[in-house]
Write a structure and sequence with these properties.
This is XisI protein. It holds the Pfam family XisI. InterPro entries: XisI (IPR014968), XisI-like_sf (IPR035943). The protein starts with a helix and ends in a 12-residue tail after the last strand. It has a five-stranded mixed sheet, with helices on one face. It has a single domain, classed as TATA-Binding Protein (2-Layer Sandwich), CATH 3.30.310.110. The protein is α+β, with helices and mostly antiparallel strands. Strand 4, helix 2 and strand 5 form a beta-alpha-beta unit. Helix content is about 20%, strand content about 40%. The protein contains two helices and five strands; from the N terminus they run H-E-E-E-E-H-E.
């Protein structure tokens, strides 16, 4: 298995684990969105909480230029440590939501 396929599988496994969590309140569904053609992977929340509509990304990761780009991480503990623990080297992870001078992953 080549590196990009392995990293794609790891990203999907980590997101799928988060998708198993049940939000603590409201009627909210967690949906995985996996696009292997464009290397885009997301966890979305959709539903209702306290009479208000809830929708949007919780996680958004892309694979590009031989790196794993964490575009958005709305998880309390963050997914970077999970990605590293699953086998992605820290130097291949870019925290794209930080200013460019701070984009190296720190675990």
């Amino acid at each position: 298995m080549d590196t990009s396929t392995r990293e794609r599988d790891i990203v999907k496994q980590v997101i799928q684990r988060y998708a198993q969590f049940k939000p603590s309140h409201g009627h909210i569904r967690l949906d995985t969105v996996f696009d292997d053609t464009q290397n885009r992977y997301a966890l979305m929340q959709v539903g209702w909480d306290r009479g208000r509509r809830v929708r949007g990304n919780l996680i958004y990761v892309t694979l590009s230029e031989g790196k794993v780009w964490v575009e958005y991480d709305g998880m309390e503990q963050g997914i970077t440590k999970d990605l590293i623990a699953a086998g992605i080297p820290p130097e291949r992870i870019v925290l794209a939501f930080l200013p460019e001078e701070q984009t190296a992953a720190t675990a």
